[in-house]
Structures are given as C-alpha cells and as structure tokens.
Amino acid sequence: GSAPSLSKEDRAALDDLSAHINGNLAGALSCEELARRACMGQTKLKAAFKAAYGTSPAAFVADARIERAIELLNSTDEPIALGYRKPGAFAEAFRRRTGVPPSAYRRRSA
Fold first, then answer.
1. Which tens digit of pLDDT belongs to each residue from 32-61?
2. Is 99 left (phi over 0), alpha (psi -120 to 50) or beta?
3. Comparing C-alpha atoms, which of 64, 66, 83, 80 is closest to residue 22?
C-alpha cells in the first residue's frame, strides 16, 4: 500500500523526536519511551516513522548511535557505548553497520 500521509502535528512531533534522539543517544530510547514522548501509540509511531524517515524508530536510533560513534572514534580515545548496556552489543552493532569493529575503525582513522 501507499505510505500514510503525516499531519503537520505528527511531522512536528517526529522532528522534535528526532532532535531528542540525537541529543540523548546514550540514554534509553525504547519504542515505548519514544511513543510516549511523541504522544502517540507505538503502532502509529512506527508507521509515522516509516513514512517520514523510511525506517523504524529502532533502526533510526541505531543508525544515529553509529554515526555519533564514528564522530567520537575520530575525535577521542575515550571508550564508547552510546546507550548499549554491554560494550559487546555496541561493538557488534558497529561492526554490522560499518564492516569493522570500533577498535579497528579507531586505529584506521588515527
């Protein structure tokens, strides 16, 4: 089917949510929490996110975290976890997205 059109209010809520996600990448960003923040149910949030960004809220958060991790790996030697409870989970997500583990990426960019 065709993508649902978004109301101005929904679009504004998603824009605010996107800014919140990017400003809180180390925090808990579950779909439930994001839906509550956007004042919509999880089903509507997922559909609206897909219509606006072409991806799910979870994938949007994961992508934003990896993008931020790349910035940090290029600019600091500090350990990076960005909202992942276990360093191994972050490393695995990073490797899946970039093809290399964070440690190898950092060495490569040094």
1. 999 999 999 999 999 999 999 999 999 999
2. left
3. 64
